[in-house]
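Priority: medium. Attachment 1 of 2:
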């Protein structure tokens, strides 16, 4: 009888342990948690990136999740401040915020990333989006450091006086000198692929240099953006010496140019107005430049003469070089680093010589077109043309 009673008691104890749950019962995990990405422009002072942590349903009790920042291209201490801790989503709520401080900077450079990783959830479970990406947008900032090495112009020339210059020493493009031609204008007659803008994303002044930047990005229905600056209506020139100190871009499909058009183009059209190409470069030939003159009474009778110059070593994107035009009533000469590589007696043009009229300046980077061809997988963007100064001397 005692044995039977003992067996019943043992059975009751065993059943009681099972009801208590113990380690054999699967715990309730609650709603899933995720964290959203943040993409934000950097500013010159410190700023805050706010990452939203969300539950798939409102919490029935306080949910806690640990978090920690992780380096990507952005580095803790240098680009942003390390952040670790625990975020709580209160019962009845479904979101909370994690704040990360991003350090201020003004340097135009590639965008940078870092991450916020979630871990150790309580009263919730990790979803598939438990690691957020923070993108620090640097590409539109307005300080761009430039290596100034390369050839420089003389400070003066015998028989010449400095008539006009732009040293790009201010904080912005001088609108008393320059305006922007915008759009694609049916490829500008060359099948170009870029959309020209007036944005500081594509042209800005930094530390005494003009920067023209071509980008691979949607713009005006096209896949590339760039800038085309002109002095038309502001500054025009007839005869003298023009010096432009510049560093050029490179890459398949890039077509930078420093050139002039006749100021009467709106009245007589091209090529009657005349064109002076002080420098053109095809990006897939980064060691070779072209200088060319264009004229003619109509497109059908268009004529041109020109020359080219190849560096004995290196390429034009590595250092500054001096691009110059010598221009008088009877002749024009084009120079690189004070070395003349093309000259033409314009007095030989029998009728309608346009090179005795006034011309205005144009600086631009074209992308694509019939001459350079389109960019390909080898072309790296952004690409920049840096102009240190332009100076016009006259007798």
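Attachment 2 of 2:
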């Amino acid at each position: 009888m005692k044995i039977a009673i003992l067996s019943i008691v043992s059975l009751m104890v065993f059943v009681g342990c099972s009801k208590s749950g113990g380690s054999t019962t699967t715990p309730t995990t609650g709603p899933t948690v995720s964290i959203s990405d943040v993409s934000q422009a950097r500013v010159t002072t410190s700023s805050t990136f706010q990452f939203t942590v969300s539950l798939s349903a409102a919490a029935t009790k306080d949910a806690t999740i640990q978090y920690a920042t992780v380096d990507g291209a952005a580095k803790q201490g240098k680009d942003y401040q390390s952040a670790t801790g625990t975020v709580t989503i209160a019962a009845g709520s479904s979101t909370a915020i994690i704040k990360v401080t991003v350090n201020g900077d003004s340097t135009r450079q590639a965008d940078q990333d870092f991450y916020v990783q979630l871990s150790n959830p309580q009263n919730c479970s990790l979803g598939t989006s438990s690691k957020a990406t923070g993108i620090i947008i640097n590409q539109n900032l307005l300080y761009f450091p430039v290596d100034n090495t390369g050839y420089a112009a003389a400070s003066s020339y015998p028989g010449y006086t400095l008539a006009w210059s732009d040293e790009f020493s201010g904080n912005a493009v001088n609108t008393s000198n320059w305006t922007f031609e915008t759009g694609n204008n049916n490829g500008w007659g060359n099948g170009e692929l870029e959309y020209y803008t007036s944005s500081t994303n594509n042209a800005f002044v930094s530390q005494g240099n003009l920067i023209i930047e071509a980008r691979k990005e949607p713009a005006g229905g096209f896949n590339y953006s760039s800038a085309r600056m002109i002095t038309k209506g502001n500054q025009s020139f007839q005869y003298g010496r023009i010096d432009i100190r510049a560093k050029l871009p490179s890459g398949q499909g890039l077509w930078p140019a420093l050139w002039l058009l006749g100021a009467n183009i709106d009245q007589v059209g091209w090529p009657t107005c005349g064109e002076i190409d002080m420098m053109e470069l095809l990006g897939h030939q980064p060691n070779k430049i072209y200088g060319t003159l264009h004229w003619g009474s109509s497109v059908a009778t268009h004529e041109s003469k020109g020359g080219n110059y190849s560096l004995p070593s290196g390429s034009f994107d590595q250092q500054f070089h001096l691009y110059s035009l010598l221009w008088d009533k009877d002749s024009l000469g084009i120079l690189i680093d004070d070395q003349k590589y093309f000259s033409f007696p314009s007095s030989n043009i029998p009728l309608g010589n346009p090179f005795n009229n006034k011309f205005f300046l144009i600086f631009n980077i074209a992308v694509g077109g019939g001459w350079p061809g389109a960019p390909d997988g080898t072309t790296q963007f952004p690409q920049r043309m840096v102009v240190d100064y332009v100076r016009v001397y006259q007798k």
